[in-house]
Specification:
The chain has 953 residues and is an alpha+beta fold. Among the domains are: 21-180, no CATH class; 187-303, no CATH class; 333-338 and 713-951, no CATH class. Helix content is 41%, strand content 17%. It is built from 26 helices and 35 strands. The strands form 11 sheets. Strands 1, 24, 25, 26, 27 and 28 form a 6-stranded mixed sheet that branches. Strands 16, 17, 18, 21, 22 and 23 form a 6-stranded mixed sheet that branches. Strands 30, 31, 32, 33 and 34 form a 5-stranded antiparallel sheet that branches. It is globular and about 115 Å long.
């Protein structure tokens, strides 16, 4: 009775789980219930197909073994012992038989049901239109068909092995096989039965040997992934020979049905084993050791070339625009002025540091927060020019402790509110913090851009679906809190699942282990339950065949707050392509932050950004748009789940066409591609083999031992030849390279991230010639910290009341060279820590600039007479060197220290006005110090080592 009750309860939990999942998929709209029903239908089919086939095969062989039992069993000690087991089993034989087969069928069915992806990919496979270099077969065979063949072979091997084991057990139990006594140890019937089963096993082995030939497409034996010289000239023919030998051996086992004795099949089986050792193992080893290794480059060259071509194609870097870029030592004013459009766009606000500052200024109540890190997007300024912008939504952390309780937690405090934006190149002159163009509650913004209207006008500022939303909320019940002392709202969207039946309430009470869902009298038929609200997780669940980017970002489009999520199609089956670990490759100094999702530790060798997804922050609607409509993997999944992915041109119309303006090149794809290009920027097989030009992604100079993340920023890439002008500024995703086991800058990679540009998605790689020495980010950070102007100001004594925090070190092509820009923040050492901009460090040519404003620092590194365009940083005081007299260097240093201490005291007290005045005073004191040093030395001040390009011998 108790067992029956437990089974009923378990089945009820399973049923409610399926029901709530179906309701969730239905709530997404646009036919997403097909995703659930297709997967469920396929799982059920595979469960029963695999389970029944396995149970039937094993069961048939057990029945055959039982019916072939000998009528007479010789008397022996062995048989007397077995008789006790037979006497115990025979009365319950059918029950034991059924129980054993049920267990086998259950475990096999569960294992088979987990192969939904392999089955759907095979049955809906799409041609790549490309052939592999070795076998001349369409790439789709290796991506879709080969994994399925391996799945079937694995299943059949298990089926035959289980059949052999159970048949041997039955034959032994009922006397068909003996270990003791004179004469034959197996009856003719048992021998024939087992000969057939072993013959089937060997036949499968022959098929497996033949399939192994195709598996060489992923061989790791040679210098690179894919069949190398040994694989093609030794392993490939060896697999063919072994397949033939195994086929002959299988025939010998089948022939043994009519023969007495096991000598012939035994000899054949022994020959197969010996051949596997000698032909399959020893022979390739000898070829590798004595033919390939002594002359590896000559032997492997064509196969290395295949690997280079396949890897670059599979990871989407075959079309990267590679350009030698040899920076000049000190560009002249004319060259610098060509890049004047870069200056106003240099981003001084670091999204990885300013989440606390956003909270300090825009949290407004203790139960709101912002993502960490903030996101980077772009919006037009008052002149209609696009500018890099830090963006975030104000998300709910839950009710304050004084208002805790189920009603408040689940029915009242249900959502965040509002969108906050701050241009990345503007810093308030007084607070030294962001200048907010969208802020406050109720939502407000600067009037800019579109016909004098607010570009951040939002009809529904409530954020019901966000990165930090509660596990679940029930809305449409009662008035919900928008913000304190403000209007209340009642949810009117279509998101979530209607609680319009008693069964739904029971199901969700069980799902969330919360009886209040069932007992509360506040829940009505029109109420809706919202859950699975994180945009990334929502898209991943809606499209389980996608790998989603780790960083979703919010945009304002069509009067709505909309999350944009990038989706990737991946595969590990692209022939000849090098495999990478997705999690390791995408890990950097931002990966541990709360708003950044970690990628799975899957091995992949093919990736495409095939899908752009949107999630409405108000109603949770998920919409998938095909971004790379030519991707064969995407085409395959669109066949499997028809109607779930819209055409690319639909994205251009979505939310009034405004979402398209905010599409950007995805971070994780860029990280994968920059990792691949560390080695695969080299396309000559000889140079690739030598490995002398292998690069690495630098360590983040502001962290310890963690890879530097890529940066979104607007920049001008240099001209593609010596004659033309630099390209127009474009929003880009950028990263740098340094030498392997070194620190010098060797390359700069940028991906065009402007969807309105015809070059969107283009990768450009600037390669620094070996004979030119440029400081990498780590070296530049050390040069900044050790500079004579910088060290006296930023090196803090023990017990200092404020801390210096170095922001992201940006690298950008500029004036025929490279410019480094790094904002430096300071914050209180105790209590509330919210960074404010203190100084800006700039390095260009052989100069270092250090000032409280970007413009001031920039003037210090440019040649006299060079026109400096206006920067975005708000200033109300001059930043040119002061004229105050300083009789000695020590007095000038003391003046810097005093101004610095005043700045610290003002920051600690929270007096932003005094802080701004102290910063101005500090800027003048620093300039006075430089002027005094120049007079004393009777020459211009010389900074510490900088990233000057100097020839090396």
């Amino acid at each position: 009775m108790l067992i029956t009750l437990a089974v009923v309860v378990a089945l009820f939990f399973i049923a409610t789980g399926f029901w709530t999942d179906l309701l969730w998929y239905r709530s997404l709209g646009d036919g997403f219930s097909k995703v659930f029903t297709t997967q469920l239908r396929t799982r059920v089919m595979l469960f029963f197909l695999g389970g029944l086939l396995m149970a039937a095969a094993v069961g048939v062989n057990m029945v055959i073994a039982y019916r072939l039992r000998p009528a007479y069993r010789p008397v022996s000690v062995e048989q007397q012992g077995l008789e006790r087991y037979r006497a115990a089993i025979d009365p319950h034989r059918r029950m034991v038989f059924v129980a054993l087969l049920a267990a086998i069928g259950l475990f096999t069915g569960l294992s088979s049901a987990g192969q939904v992806g392999t089955w759907l990919a095979f049955t809906n496979r799409t041609s790549f239109g490309e052939k592999d270099a070795q076998f001349g077969m369409d790439v789709s065979f290796f991506v879709f068909t080969y994994p399925f063949l391996r799945l079937i072979l694995g299943f059949l091997f298990v089926l035959v092995v289980l059949s052999i084991i159970t048949a041997v057990a039955v034959h032994y139990l009922y006397g068909g096989l003996r270990l003791q006594g004179a004469g034959d140890k197996a009856s003719p019937s048992a021998r024939a039965h087992l000969s057939v089963l072993v013959g089937l096993f060997v036949l499968l082995k022959a098929i497996a040997y033949w399939c192994d030939r195709w598996g060489l497409a992923y061989s790791e034996r040679g210098k690179v992934t894919g069949p190398g010289y040994t694989d093609v000239n030794a392993v490939l023919p060896a697999k063919t020979i072994l397949a033939s030998i195994a086929l002959i051996c299988a025939i010998l086992f089948f022939v043994n049905i009519w023969r007495r004795g096991m000598m012939l099949p035994g000899v054949g089986f022994g020959l197969m084993v010996l051949s596997a050792i000698l032909i399959g193992g020893v022979y390739p080893l000898l070829i590798q050791q004595f033919q390939v290794k002594p002359n590896e480059l000559a032997k492997e060259r064509p196969y290395i070339e295949r690997n280079i071509d396949a890897t670059r194609d599979a990871f989407g870097v075959a079309g990267v625009d590679e350009q030698n870029y040899a920076p000049t030592k000190q560009p002249d004013a004319k060259e610098v002025e060509k890049y004047s459009a870069t200056i106003p766009n240099v981003r001084l606000l670091d999204p990885t540091l300013l989440s606390p500052t956003f909270r300090q200024n825009q949290q407004l109540q203790g139960f709101y927060t912002f993502s960490d890190p903030l996101d980077i997007d772009r919006y037009p300024d008052a002149n209609g020019d696009m500018q890099d912008t830090l963006v975030a939504v104000r998300e709910l952390t839950g009710p304050p402790p004084s208002a805790s309780g189920w009603v408040n937690e689940r029915l009242t405090y249900t959502h965040g509110y509002g969108f906050v934006a701050a241009p990345g190149n503007r810093v308030d002159a007084q607070s030294k913090g962001p200048v907010y163009t969208a802020s406050d509650m109720p939502q407000s913004c600067e009037v800019a851009a579109k016909d004098g209207e607010c570009q951040f006008a939002i009809d529904k500022p409530q954020v019901y679906f966000g990165e930090q939303s509660p596990a679940y909320s029930i809305v449409g019940v009662q008035e919900e809190l928008d913000f304190p002392n403000g209007p209340r709202t009642v949810y009117s969207g279509t998101g979530g699942v209607r609680m319009d039946s008693f069964f739904n309430r029971v199901a969700y009470a069980m799902k969330f282990r919360d009886r209040n869902i069932l007992l509360s009298g506040n829940i009505k038929e029109q109420s809706r339950i919202l859950y699975d609200r994180n945009p990334r997780e929502r898209v991943q669940k809606a499209a389980p065949w996608l790998t989603v980017d780790g960083n979703a970002y919010p945009v304002v489009a069509g009067g709505r707050i909309v999350w944009v999520v990038d989706g990737y199609t991946t595969s590990s089956g692209y022939p000849y392509s090098e495999r990478i670990n997705l999690q390791d490759t995408t890990f950097d100094s931002n990966s541990e932050r709360p708003a950044v999702g970690r990628q799975p530790g899957a091995e992949v060798n093919y990736i495409r950004n095939s899908v752009k997804a949107t999630v409405d922050a108000y109603d949770g609607t998920v919409t998938l748009y095909a971004w790379d409509e030519n991707d064969p993997v995407l085409k395959t999944w669109r066949k499997a789940f028809p109607g779930t992915v819209k055409a690319k041109n639909e994205l251009q119309k979505a939310f009034g066409g405004e979402v398209f303006d905010h599409i950007r090149y995805p971070e994780d794809l860029f990280k994968v591609q920059r990792s691949v290009l560390r080695s695969y920027h080299v396309t000559d097989p000889s140079s690739f083999y030598d490995g002398q030009d292998t690069w690495q992604v630098p360590v983040d100079p502001t962290e310890t031992g963690v890879t530097e993340p890529p940066f979104y920023l607007t920049l001008q890439m240099p001209s593609r030849d010596d004659e033309s002008e630099p390209e127009k500024p474009a929003f880009s995703l950028t990263s740098t390279y340094v030498a392997r086991n070194g620190t010098n800058l060797t390359g700069f990679l940028a991906a065009n991230s402007d969807p309105k540009s015809e070059n969107f998605g283009e990768l450009r790689l600037l390669q620094v010639p070996r004979e030119v020495s440029i400081l990498g980010p780590g070296q530049m950070q050390n040069a900044f910290k050790g500079n004579d102007k910088v060290a006296p100001v930023l090196n803090r004594p023990a017990g200092s009341t404020t801390q210096v925090v170095y922001g992201n070190l940006l690298t950008l092509p500029f004036g025929g060279g490279f410019m480094y820009v790094q904002p430096v923040y300071q914050q209180s050492a105790t209590g509330a820590k919210f960074p404010v901009l203190g100084w800006v460090l700039v390095s260009f040519g052989d100069q270092i600039g250090f000032d409280t404003t970007f413009e001031g620092a920039l003037k210090q590194v440019l040649q006299p007479g060079t026109k400096v365009p206006e920067t975005g940083q708000d200033t109300d005081t001059p930043t040119t060197p002061g004229t105050g007299s300083s009789p000695s260097v020590q007095q000038a240093i003391d003046a810097v220290k005093q101004a610095f201490q005043e700045s610290q005291d003002a920051l600690k007290s929270g007096d932003l006005k005094k802080y701004a005045e102290a910063q101005d005073k500090l800027s003048q004191a620093i300039n006075n110090l430089v002027e005094v040093q120049s007079r004393v030395e009777d020459e211009p001040a010389t900074p510490a080592p900088t990233p000057s390009p100097t020839p090396t011998n």
